[in-house]
Each structure stands twice: as structure tokens, then as C-alpha cells.
Amino acid sequence: MKDLAGKTAFVTGAASGIGLGIATALARAGAKVMLCDIEEPALAGAVEGLKRTNADVEGVRADVSLRAELESAAEAFVARYGKAHILVNNAGVGGGGPYGAWTDAGWNWTLGVNLMAVVWGFEIFGPLIERHGEGGHIVSTASIAGLVANPVTVPYCVSKYGVVALSEGLRAALAPRGIGVSVLCPGFIRTEIMDSVRNLPERFDRPPAEALAAMRSSDMFKTAQERILQGIDPLYVGELAREGIENDWPYIFTDLEFEPMVEMRFAAIREGFDRIRGRVPRR
């Protein structure tokens, strides 16, 4: 999709952070963009800010962890813009907690927003993109944690590994249908992900105040928060995502910081094969 002018795009988690960065970059390229988010005041502010630049944008509120709400948002998108060319599955939360503190509600929220909403995004928007026959592109935000797991945020990593696998598999499946697929794997970006609980839906039990306070006072939380505060500009990430759409990149990375860790993972996998090299499997 070399020319994005006049194309239509639907971006989830677009009220702030990476989502707003991508929506801004697409709007600057001439695309018509619908911003979707659960956080209504921030969404209204993001839409108003982009409209001041004469961008053709609208907003729609949805909890993407509920398929029915995502479907309703898609209907609003088609009603407003008629066609769907680009989908950005970006909404994400940093929930889950460390081993020993897991709850079913925490897993359900993390997987619901980070993974199932992406599955539903493909299922809902894929046919809409195919319908007009002009081709399109789908970008899904995973994380570098979708390639290198860490012991502290396992549920988050599980959800992001799923997004990577989904994107890799569907890239091959959707290419013959004229739909490009990219997975975005950012490192530390200046976002509000460390305060994801602010958007926790009422249907999930909120962690006790003392548990939240203990988490936020931990050295690991403070270190991660400091790294994020000093992280990469979300608009820069948006520009990379736009370039990835235009050039059909399978993987979109934001920096080289974690490249050695990814290479270490691949080396460990190769070692696993080397340990059985020369053996003939019993049939």
C-alpha cells in the first residue's frame, strides 16, 4: 500500500501512546482514521487534537475484550467511511502479575485485550477489507516480550507471543487475498501501560489497593516505569508502523536494544536441535 492518501484505517487503543502515534502518522499520510478506545475522555481529546490539523478522523468507544463491542465499532467505522483498508490491532494492557499472584480474572483480562481482541479484529475486519477488492493491511501490536519472555510478566508475554504467532500464520494465509500482515514488536515506549488498571472493566475484580500499592513500590516496577518514562516517542513508532504498511514489512521493530536477547533465544533453540542431531527417531 504505497499510497495511503484516501485510504481508511481503524486503530484500537488509539486514545494515547502507540495507538495515537500510529493514528497520527496515518492521518498525516492522508488516511481517514477512526480511533477506538475504552477511555472516553482521552479518546475525545485525541480526536479533537487531530481534527485541529484538518485530519479526517472520528472516534468510537469500545471495550475490545468484548467481541460484540468491537463488532459495533466496526459497524460504526463502515457507516462513516464505507470501506476498510487498514486495521491496527493495538489495544493492550500490562496485566497478569507474577507467578504466585495470578488470578483467573487477571488472565482473562490480559488475554482478552491483548490476544482475543486481535483474533476478533482479523475475523471482523478481514472480510471487510476483502469485500472491496482494493487490498489492505493489518498491523497488530505485540511486543519485544512476544519474542523474549521474562519471568515477571508471564501472562503479558503469553498474550504477546500469541500475537506474533497469529500474525506470522495469517501473513501467509491472507497474502493471496490481497491483505498484508505485519506484527509490531516495540521495546520501551513512552506510554501509560504501567497504569493499565485505570481501564480495568467493572466485570473483573479490581486488585486490592494494598496489592496495587505493593506492586507499584517494588524495585522492578519502578525500574520499568523509569525506562518507559525515558522511552521512545510514540509518534516515531507510528511513523515506523506507517512505513511498515507502505512496504509490507512482516516485522516492525522500534530499536536494537533487545536484538542480542532475541539472538540468544534463537541460539538456545538451535542448541536444542544440536543435542539430538544425528539421532534417528524411533517410529
Can you describe this structure in just a few lines?
The chain is an alpha/beta fold and 283 residues long.
- The average pLDDT is 94
Q: Taking Cα atoms only, what radius of gyration do you get, to the nearest Å?
A: 19 Å
Biggest sheet: strands side by side, in what order?
3-2-1-4-5-6-7
The description of the largest β-sheet is:
7 strands, parallel
Distance between the termini: 48 Å
The overall strand count is 7
> Structural class given helices, strands, pairing?
alpha/beta
What is the number of helical segments per DSSP (H or I, 4+ residues)? 9
Fraction of helical residues? 40-55%
Content of β-strand: 5-15%
Shape: globular
The topology string of helices and strands comes to EHEHEHEHEHEHHHEH
Structure description:
The structure is a single chain. The chain is an alpha/beta fold and 283 residues long. Helix content is 49%, strand content 13%. It has 9 helices and 7 strands; from the N terminus they run βαβαβαβαβαβαααβα. The chain has a 7-stranded parallel sheet with strand order 3-2-1-4-5-6-7, sandwiched between helices. Helix 4 links the parallel strand 4 and strand 5. Helix 3 packs parallel to helix 4 and helix 4 packs parallel to helix 5. The longest helix has 29 residues. It starts with 7 loop residues before the first strand and ends in a 9-residue tail after the last helix.
